[in-house]
Input
Amino acid sequence: LTSLIRRNRRPDLDSLKQRLADAFAPHPFTLSQPRPDGGRVVTLVDPQGETLLQRVIAKVQLNDESYLEDAVQTIRRELQVLVGRMEEDVLATFRERDHVLLYSSR
Output
């Protein structure tokens, strides 16, 4: 029970920023002030300062360690694909999962 409580506790702003810095290194990022819905916008930039991507981390994700981890990993994968650092076998897996199953009516 203690590990579940610890796992789902709300991260503080400093630990959130450190987690994002670790996950997105070497790309600089900014974290917006809270939006009216409680989410925050993460903006990742390239070395020239051009925006690579922007994503919202929802309030529910910010308030729960496990949801936050999922959000950070999703953004990290998107960043890796965007900058061409994802291994081909991982990309193939994503492509396979992206196919729609067709059902025939016989």
